[in-house]
Each structure stands twice: as structure tokens, then as C-alpha cells.
């Protein structure tokens, strides 16, 4: 897969639309490397979805807080009471999980990141678990029903008494890299942008304009 950034930050991609013709020429000339990326396999009952960034269990307004018990590798780790929970891959750690206060994890590390959303009780800190430890979230009977989002798309609903299973599938995706060093440098800049009080286009407006004739 060759990603082209049609959005704003675009952490997964290194190519912008105006660079696409040159990128396609380099593909034809086989001047590229392939970077494997893990995927999340998300099970809700008999249904399974695949995501490369994250899965989020999010409180539906009016349904009450999400209350769930977390198990990692079959071992109970504790309970959550909050607006929701995000489980992400390493490459997805810079997306929803990062916004929820989770750690930024190297994309070369196969791991799962668990980040709570607006915790009210129970586990309140994010955690990182290994690739071979499946995650299970069991909604308590008193939990409100929650929407399940995979890579930003609602794929179902988790009801009180139900469960959500998440496991990692290493190397499920193959991403084309034309210049890995350039990609990393761009990401370093992109990671700093969310902390700034201005949008990128606003920063350009604030930059000093060159003097006439210079």
C-alpha cells in the first residue's frame, strides 16, 4: 500500500498529492522498501473487524458510563469506569490513543496500547502489552451500551454483559516507503503540531513575509 496524504497530519503516509507522479515512477523502477505493519482483529460476538490504527469503545450520550473488566492474556487486570477506552497498534499510538494521553510507541514495536477516555474510577493510566497477549473487555451488567469504532468507523455496539476481544495480527499490512529518513523527520514535526495553539495554515500567516525586492 502506498499512502497519499489527503488529510491534515497523515502519520501513516509520506506522499502528498503533488508528489504522486514521481512516487509512481519510483515504484515502477523498484526504488522503494516495504514496511510491515500489524493490524487489530476485533471480535464482537460472531463478527470480526480489522483495523490498522485503533479500536475505541465509546459511551453513547444518554446511555451512562462504560464499565468494563479488562483481561490481558486471560488474566484479569482490573475494571474501568469511564467515557470509553482505546486499544491501538504501535502505528496507531499517534492517533486517538495519543489524544487520550497514551504513549507514543515506535512503529517497529509489535504491541497493544490501552488508553482510557475520561476515567472516573478504576484503572486510570494507559498501559502497553505485548503482541501475543490478547485483550478482552467484558462490559459489566450496570454498564451503558457503547459504540465500537474501528479506525474511526462505527462497526457495532457493545451492550451490558457483552464482550469485546482484540488481538494483534503482526505483519498484516505492507506499507511502501520511498524515503524512510524523510518520513521520520516529517513525523517528528507532525508530532509537535498538535501541541501548538495554531493550525499549520495559521502558522504560515504569522510567519514574517519577505520584503519586496528580496
TrEMBL record:
Keyword Nucleotidyltransferase in record: no
UniProt keyword terms in alphabetical order: Kinase, Transferase
GO molecular-function terms, A-Z: kinase activity
Keyword Transferase applies: yes
PANTHER family according to UniProt: NAD KINASE
Name of the protein this chain belongs to: NAD(+)/NADH kinase
Record organism: Solirubrobacter deserti
Lineage per the UniProt record: Bacteria, Bacillati, Actinomycetota, Thermoleophilia, Solirubrobacterales
Amino acid at each position: 500500500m502506498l499512502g497519499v496524504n489527503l488529510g491534515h497530519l497523515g502519520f501513516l503516509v509520506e506522499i502528498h498529492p503533488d508528489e504522486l507522479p514521481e512516487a509512481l515512477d519510483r515504484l515502477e523502477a523498484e526504488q522503494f522498501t516495504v514496511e510491515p505493519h500489524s493490524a487489530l482483529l476485533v471480535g464482537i460476538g460472531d463478527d470480526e473487524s480489522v483495523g490498522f490504527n485503533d479500536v475505541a469503545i465509546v459511551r453513547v450520550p444518554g446511555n451512562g458510563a462504560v464499565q468494563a473488566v479488562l483481561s490481558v492474556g486471560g488474566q484479569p487486570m482490573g475494571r474501568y469506569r469511564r467515557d470509553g477506552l482505546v486499544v491501538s497498534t504501535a502505528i496507531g499510538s499517534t492517533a486517538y490513543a495519543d489524544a487520550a494521553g497514551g504513549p507514543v510507541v515506535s512503529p517497529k514495536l509489535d504491541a497493544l496500547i490501552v488508553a482510557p477516555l475520561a476515567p472516573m474510577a478504576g484503572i486510570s493510566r494507559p498501559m502497553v502489552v505485548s503482541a501475543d497477549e490478547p485483550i478482552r473487555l467484558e462490559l459489566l451488567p450496570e454498564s451503558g451500551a457503547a459504540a465500537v469504532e474501528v479506525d474511526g468507523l462505527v462497526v457495532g455496539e457493545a451492550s451490558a454483559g457483552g464482550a469485546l476481544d482484540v488481538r494483534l495480527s503482526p505483519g498484516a499490512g505492507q506499507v511502501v516507503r520511498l524515503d524512510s529518513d524523510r518520513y521520520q523527520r516529517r513525523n517528528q514535526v507532525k508530532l509537535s503540531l498538535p501541541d501548538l495553539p495554531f493550525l499549520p495554515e495559521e502558522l504560515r500567516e504569522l510567519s514574517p513575509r519577505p520584503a519586496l525586492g528580496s
